[in-house]
């Protein structure tokens, strides 16, 4: 009479063990999935920062092909194409992101940025116009300023640049862009002030150093500014100053600056040597 009870108990024990095994397997599977998500997130971050840009493009292209519709992978592909200096493909990739149901206004801004890199200013302006004015970010206003520059809407450009400067703790790059805008308008003293402000925020920004020399040279001030520079940078800035002088027909000053650039550079300064040779040949002829 007791045998059925024993069998039932054994059966129950077996079922319980099976249930425990299944539960354990499910927990392990969930844990592995969590680990995979963390690993993938870390890998995505690496690909977007330190990986070779073209390798990152291939990675995100494969990942988004294998898992279509995942907007994080689509963004990764678009960002990687920008890093790889493939703006036309990046613009198309950002358009796909913008068309996604989970896209954000920042995606629209990145789309406008990619369009600017392809020189499609009209489309970039339309993309920015589609963003509500209440969405105020540094990148949005920096791009708005660049579009205004392209349209020669100088007052709007100044307003956008000023707003962008106020929205970042690292304004050197946008101050340099603003200064270059002033330089193209012929406002050399205004450009000089902005390039100086850029270098005050980032003393290592060589583009601002070179632009500052251009602004001073345009005012026929052929002395190098008192700024932080390496010996190679000093030679390069002297070369820039020399070319500015020559362009303004101050040939004697230009020749002297070229020779000083050649003497200053710690290696052979081929560009300055060619410039000096061309100047002397033209003068001789």
TrEMBL record:
SUPFAM superfamilies: TPR-like. Residues 1-18 form the signal peptide. It holds the Pfam family TPR_16. TPR repeats lie at residues 172-205. It comes from Octadecabacter ascidiaceicola. PROSITE patterns: PROKAR_LIPOPROTEIN, TPR. The keyword Signal applies. This is Tetratricopeptide repeat protein. Keywords: Signal, TPR repeat. The keyword Transferase does not apply.
């Amino acid at each position: 009479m007791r045998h059925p009870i024993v069998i039932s108990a054994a059966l129950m024990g077996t079922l319980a063990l099976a249930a425990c095994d299944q539960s354990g397997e499910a927990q392990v599977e969930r844990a592995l999935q969590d680990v995979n998500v963390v690993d993938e997130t870390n890998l995505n971050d690496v690909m977007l920062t330190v990986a070779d840009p073209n390798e990152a493009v291939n990675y995100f292209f494969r990942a988004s092909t294998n898992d279509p519709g995942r907007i994080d992978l689509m963004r990764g592909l678009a960002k990687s194409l920008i890093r790889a200096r493939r703006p036309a493909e990046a613009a198309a990739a950002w358009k796909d992101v913008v068309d996604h149901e989970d896209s954000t206004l920042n995606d629209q801004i990145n789309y406008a940025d990619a369009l600017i890199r392809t020189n499609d200013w009209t489309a970039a302006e339309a993309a920015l116009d589609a963003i509500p004015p209440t969405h105020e970010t540094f990148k949005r206003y920096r791009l708005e300023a660049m579009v205004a520059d392209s349209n020669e809407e100088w007052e709007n450009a100044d307003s956008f640049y000023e707003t962008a400067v106020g929205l970042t703790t690292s304004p050197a790059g946008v101050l340099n862009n603003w200064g270059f805008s002033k330089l193209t308008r012929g406002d050399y003293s205004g450009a000089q002030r902005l390039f100086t402000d850029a270098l005050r925020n980032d003393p290592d920004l060589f583009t601002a150093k070179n632009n500052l020399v251009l602004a001073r040279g345009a005012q026929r001030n052929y002395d190098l500014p008192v700024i932080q520079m390496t010996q190679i940078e000093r030679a390069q800035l002297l070369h820039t100053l020399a070319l500015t002088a020559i362009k303004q027909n101050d040939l004697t000053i230009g020749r002297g600056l070229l020779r000083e650039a050649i003497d200053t550079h710690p290696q052979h300064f081929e560009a300055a040597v060619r410039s000096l040779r061309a100047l002397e040949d033209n003068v001789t002829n």
